[in-house]
Amino acid sequence: MDGITAAEKSNSVLRPLKEKLEGRRGRAVLICAGCLIMFAVLFITGFMMDDSGLRTNFLERSLAPSLEHPFGTDWLGRDMLVRTVKGLCLSLQVGMLAAACSTVFALLFGLCAATLGPKADSLVTGLIDVIMSTPHLVMLILISFTLGGGAAGVISAVALTHWTRLARIVRAEMLQLRNAEFIKISEKMGKGRLWIARHHMLPHVFPQFMIGLILLFPHAIMHAAGLTFLGFGLSPHNPSIGILLSEAMQHLSTGYWWLAVAPGLCLVLMVKAFDILGNTMRYLMDPKTSQQ
Question: Which of helix, strand or coil describes residue 223?
Fold first, then answer.
């Protein structure tokens, strides 16, 4: 009887957890955890991989994918699996830093537009209109070229051109929040604009900030790879995905298909994983769906 009682107690404790995991919210949590684990494994694998696969080895040049070299080797005998993993880690770092800077710009400009009066609002909205009316790729190339290319040029170009849409969302949320009852009470109590923005507005837009940050990752990674592919980004000495694809274009006509397929497919999968993570986080943090 004691054993049955203990089992029943255990089932009564685990049943709510099981039901929660079987619901839509539980599946969303598992999806987020799976994406984060995948990115962590990628970083750890890239950190632990030996750099010997990046060295030239003419005895193993242009080998097709095999058990020894799952992604094959390039025309200099370098292992494409090592180059792809290292390139993904580098592209991920550049994309994450660019997306983080861009979301900070969006938050600051949206906050200024909503709290510093009509003149600041007109200035910010005008700047947003100018950036969004300019061809995106042209602006990316101009900024990256002006700053000398490299990692700093790519990060600056992506950060300075991707903040506009999120800034509009933050501005709209704050303008709507400005007429809320607790904001009016704080103003009557003598609280300043910066105090209200810090203690009331910023916590309110934090979910939008986090979702915007995650959803900007795939755009930043793709545009960073595109700039590098066009020759305006990272140095050819760095094994980034853009460099791998750019180099592969010179050898596809000779039948070395694996030079482009493996890095390109891995880039698409990583970008899709970020997109899934962002949409799932939005589902979890949206008040309309967070309780489902």
Answer: helix
Local structure of 73: helix, strand or coil: strand
Half-sphere exposure of 261 (CA within 13 A, CB side): 11
Residues 6+ apart with CB under 8 A from 290: 25, 283, 284
Q: Per-residue pLDDT tens for 228-267?
A: 887 777 777 777 888 888 888 877 777 788 888 888 888 8
Asked whether 116 and 176 are in contact (CB, 8 A), the reply is no
DSSP state of 240: -
Assess whether pLDDT exceeds 80 at residue 186: no
- Is residue 90 a contact partner of residue 70, using CB atoms and an 8 Å limit? no
Q: Cα dihedral angle (60, 61, 65, 67), rounded to 10 degrees? A: 10
Q: What angle do CA 67, 72, 73 make, to 5 degrees?
A: 130
Tens of pLDDT, residue by residue over 30-66, are: 888 888 898 888 888 888 887 777 788 888 888 888 8
DSSP 137-189: HHHHHHHHHHTTSHHHHHHHHHHHHSSHHHHHHHHHHHHHHTTSHHHHHHHHT
